[in-house]
Amino acid sequence: MKCKVGKSIISGQIVCPPNKSYTHRAIFLASLAGKMSKVDNILLSADTKATIDTCKKFGAEIEIENSSIIVKNPIKIGTKVPEINTENSGTTMRIASGIASLFSEEITLTGDESLQKRPMQPLLDALTSIGAQCSSTDGKPPIKIKGKIAGGEVKIPGNFSSQFISALLISAPLTEKGINLTIEGNLVSKPYLDATISTMRKFGVTVQTLIPYKRYNISPQIYKECTFTIPIDFSSLALLLSANVLNGEDITIKGNIGNLPQGDEVFIDILEQLGVQIMMDDNQIKIKTPEKLNGGKFDLSNSPDLLPPLAILALKSSKPIEIFNVKHARLKETDRIAIISRELSKIGIKIQEKEDGMILETSKNISGAELNSEEDHRLFMAFCIAGMHVGNCSVTDPESVQVSYPNFVEEMKRMGADIEIQ
Asked: What is the DSSP string of 156-182?
């Protein structure tokens, strides 16, 4: 499938989707906590449904009521678990692997073709060092894990994915000894680790920070029931804000911003550096955009999901936009650095691809093109937004938005976008 995208102006109100990362974490922790934990304002997407299904296979009893889930009975550690398919969700795969290591019976975890290309070896090595038996296909799914881990001292590199560390943190309080965790090298995507620790705290578990982003101690503890409300997703908000900058006319973006840490909130600062005026309160955001953006240099080491919405803003920038320290974006659903460089050059943006990022500069020869999103949800949305600015574009794989923003196309059309699924 593909979308035909024409030059468009969008206007009106739009509600930003709930946060996908917090939805994953809260569902797992509610499922570990006990009866009657509740998670409100969840994002119901393909990825988060994979987490719900995974928790059910671990033995949790979960009911979905409108935009909430209620856990009637928790995960039953020790029961026999059928094969778990986490589909396209890397977060589900990695956190579920940590939980699987708490079971004494072998558990198989797999995923779709894309997920089977994503690395797991650093997490498997860490789990093995504290008592798990792990096997995989060249360090990638499908994987087999047999516990039960006892806890103790564990080391893991930080330069691949913060999800590995989150998996260890979430499982740590349920081990016999707890875990003393050392992160080796520089940790990428630091705010996602903060998100994990903040969510654990809401469910009654304390993580002792010895050296921030380097050393943590998690003693044996019990997750406690609570009601957790998911804030808006700043990753999705960044895409909506980019759509506003490139194609918007009097747009109001609404949603519960909340006070939980989100690394992608830095996109507000990025837009201000580019010259965009931000009007923001607890429930809505409006912006005022200059005729041309300023350009600049941006370190996305802690916010790799901002690569697509920032890259397309080169279309309206008077100076180059340089993005760096985001090599780990090559390990997402796709190699986002390579694909963005390849595809945006088709519409006339001058791009210098680097190992850890890119330099983008607009040109006078901008024109429509066929853009291949490689079944990556964030690339599909970014390319559609770029297409609305350029006109006469087509973008492949509209079904990919089921991962994080299922009604993206419908919402853009409602606001006036010329988008048709073919």
From this structure: EESSS-HHHHHHHHHHGGGSSS-EEEE
